Amino acid sequence: MGREVSESCVEGLMMEVVSAYSSRLYPAKPDLAARRIEAIGFQVGHQLSERYTMERPRFSDHLEAIKFICKDFWSELFKKQIDNLKTNHRGTFVLQDNRFRWLTRISIDPSTESTDESTPDNNAAQATNMHLYFPCGIIRGALTNLGIPCAVSPDISNLPACSFVVRIKA
Amino acid sequence: MIVCVAVVGNQVRSDRPRPLRGGAQNNPVYLQSFTEADDALKLHHIVHCSLDVIDERVNNPKRSGPTLNETFLGLLYPTENYKVYGYLTNTKVKFIMVTTDLDVKDADVRNLKVILQNHYKYVSVLVQIPTYIMFFRRFHAAYVDAVSNPFHVPGKKITSKSFAERVSVIVKSFGSTAT
């Protein structure tokens, strides 16, 4: 039940959330803005995991829950699955998406960041990172609701592929 | 006839000491009784006791056998007047239903019934899902919709009136279709 909105509305909303939190609400405190955005994502992931695990039998271990996130959860959210899953079998998982849907529209123009003392590369990286805190929160919220407390951080060493590093708290 | 339904959550509260078995704490999220009698306290007590049975079923893989990971847990325990059924979701949220139907067999409750009907030129196969499982599925759908409310705080009680109305509709329709 419920109505649907077009995908461009969701992308527009994401852009505005990031821009509002970084430049208007917490202009000089990017860490605080990132934490607030991640907290919003946490609640969304919490609620979405309830909805998407409805008809399934229970997961027997952590790996099954992570595989659920990579396959069914990700395809419900982004219409594709996670492309690569790596683990060190000691509680760390790396989820790699080769073409993350919400980042496909981002283009970085280094020439505009001339007044800052930090390098344009750094600013571009920070701006892109801001957009990834929301999906990190979604993953963290979904895993926490499945009983797996964890910490999720983004990794954009090679765009357009982005990775999410999930560290399970013991 | 269903006399009581309850939803018990999975939240870990930071102010309480951690449980010894490492499992989730049981915080009541919703409790509604559908009988006019004054024994609401007894129903609360029954729901509370059945939580222990659920924990035992989940943490004891040898005894549960092939139904270890199913959501519908079946009959938890019968008291002298009531039967208590449980359902455990993937996110460790427990739904509990207390009913006074004392003559329903456990096999009927758990298994699908396949009915073959012979028409003139073809045979139709009807698969009947037991009414209890249908009840819990509808209840689960209503719960998911109530929890998706952005103003609902996870762990607190559900205060949505539309959820209460949906639950009473489900309970009433269950009472009219079940024998």
From TrEMBL, chain A:
Lineage top rank: taxon: Eukaryota
Entries under Pfam families matching the protein: TRAPP
Protein name: Trafficking protein particle complex subunit 6B
Organism of this sequence: Ananas comosus var. bracteatus
GO terms of biological process kind: endoplasmic reticulum to Golgi vesicle-mediated transport
Classification via InterPro entries: NO_sig/Golgi_transp_ligand-bd, TRAPP_component, TRAPPC6/Trs33
Family statement: Belongs to the TRAPP small subunits family. BET3 subfamily.
Matching PANTHER family: GEO08327P1 (PTHR12817:SF0), TRAFFICKING PROTEIN PARTICLE COMPLEX SUBUNIT 6B (PTHR12817)
Single GO cellular component term: cis-Golgi network
Automatic annotation (TrEMBL), chain B:
Membrane-spanning residues: none
InterPro entries: Longin-like_dom_sf, Sedlin, TRAPPC2L
Annotated GO biological process: endoplasmic reticulum to Golgi vesicle-mediated transport
Classification via Gene3D superfamilies: 3.30.450.70
Domain of life: Eukaryota
A GO CC term assigned to this protein in UniProt: cytoplasm
SUPFAM superfamilies assigned to the protein according to its UniProt record, in alphabetical order: SNARE-like
Pfam family name, one: Sedlin_N
Family named by the database record: Belongs to the TRAPP small subunits family. Sedlin subfamily.
The protein's name: Trafficking protein particle complex subunit 2-like protein
